[in-house]
Amino acid sequence: MGMQIAHIMASCMGGIRTAGDLVAWMQMTRKMKLNDAKAYVAKKLGIDVFELTNEDEMRLIREDLNLGTVTSIAGGPKGIRAKKKIGELLDIKIRSVELFKSQFN
Amino acid sequence: MSDKILTRMGDGERLRMTSSEVREDIKEATVDAASRGGIPELTAEEQDQLYEIIADPSRIVSVKPGNEAIVSDDGCSMAFYSGQDGGGVGVPLSRMQAALTYERACGADTISLGHSDYSYKPVKSIINIEANDYYNISMSSTVPFFYGAQPNMGLYFQPDGPCPNAAELLPLGKIKEARAAQEMAADYMADDLVFVAERLAEVGLEGLNFDTAGSAGDADFLAALRAVERIKEKFPDLPILMGGSAEFVIGMHGELMYDGKKIAGMYTHEQAQAVEKAGAAIFGMAVNTVTTESVQWNLARAVTFLKATTEAVSIPVHANVGMGVCGIPMMEQPPIDSVTRVSKALVEIGMADGL
Fold it and tell me: Over the stretch B246-274, which tens digit does the pLDDT of each residue have?
């Protein structure tokens, strides 16, 4: 377990602490290389690429855009509701979200 | 106080080496990788960069701000609740609790779910259980959520499976029969990979991981490639991460081809090209750690292969960095001094898109 955490501390973008999950979605859904994926996400968020891993900036952005935050906020979106907003922001299709949306039909 | 550099062997043993010894290891290893793979050696500047990472006196190191990469995983959250065999720490958490802890407490970029056996064949008989757990967790998770396991063609040979055992036929000189057995096993395995993917796709699967493809040789690798093709044809929107099992594909069959190229002997850059051709979104690169060589020797080889691999394809390349892979010492409890040095070097010199 310590090995995974060591990798995360040494080189990981930070998942929902920052914009790591957003960049990962672009690698998965559009097959983007790291720098292209970062640039795409930064453009969608309207920030500099360097700020993607800045907790101070990304925390506020995630809260404002309802993308899910690392700390649990009562009433705040998380899980599938946050993923729905992420899909819309990044203009990508997230399969679990598509299933979720289909259940309202 | 010694002025020698504190480092480790590939089995985790700690030792001190002189500056010139560390540099010699790096040089020797990159020449070795380049020679084997027919790829460029690390430049003198890159070798210096790697030396600085190894020689850093700090206990742990990290990438510079702005250089962070994606850290995907192959069942990492299973290590919360599993035991020694899976590198697990035995905390009594459910699969959902473990996955969400990995997402929220650890800040991972992706999370995943996998069966304890971590092979696709046993998943087939419990697919409804896996689909149910996957669906429930996917409703609660925010970061990309993979389902992963190893193709593991070895499970299709007798006595564990239906096919004659190729590893028993080969020493008897029954080459033709061994090849036929592997082709049969490959067909069974591809069907199972597609079966599991189809069932999970029905419950909103966000990403699929074929981890350690080719572990039983070239037929294993080919079956995984064929499965990727079939799955992408049916579900073009389903992202697939396909990872290799070693720096080259072992030629247990020897004659199998993909896209006009022989699979046996494919090095990582060629594996990545095949994976890209099949339609996967991400290639996972594996280079096995040699336990009798130093961490810097193993890492220099891994970085050399990785750099050539990232340059060979348009899809993202993630370096596999579990126990005994890509420079990580082959031991149950990899030391974090080595782990962080591997992490930094692969991202900043090897230009990994992820780990």
Answer: 999 999 999 999 999 999 999 999 999 99
Show residues of chain B in contact with A100, CB under 8 Å: 139, 204
- In A, minimum Cα distance to B80 occurs at A1
* Confidence (pTM): 0.96
CB atoms inside a 10 Å sphere around CB B129: 11
Residues 44-83 of A with CB under 8 A from B: 49-50, 53, 67-68, 70, 72, 78-80, 82-83
| Inside any domain, residue B354 | no
Q: How far apart are CA B241 and CA B149, in angstroms?
A: 11
* CATH number for the domain harbouring residue B170: 3.20.20
Domain membership of residue B279 as a residue range: 5-348
Closest to B70 (Cβ–Cβ): which among A23, A31, A86?
Answer: A23
Q: Give chain B's domain count.
A: 1
Helix residue ranges per DSSP H, chain A? 2-11, 20-30, 34-45, 55-65, 79-90, 95-102
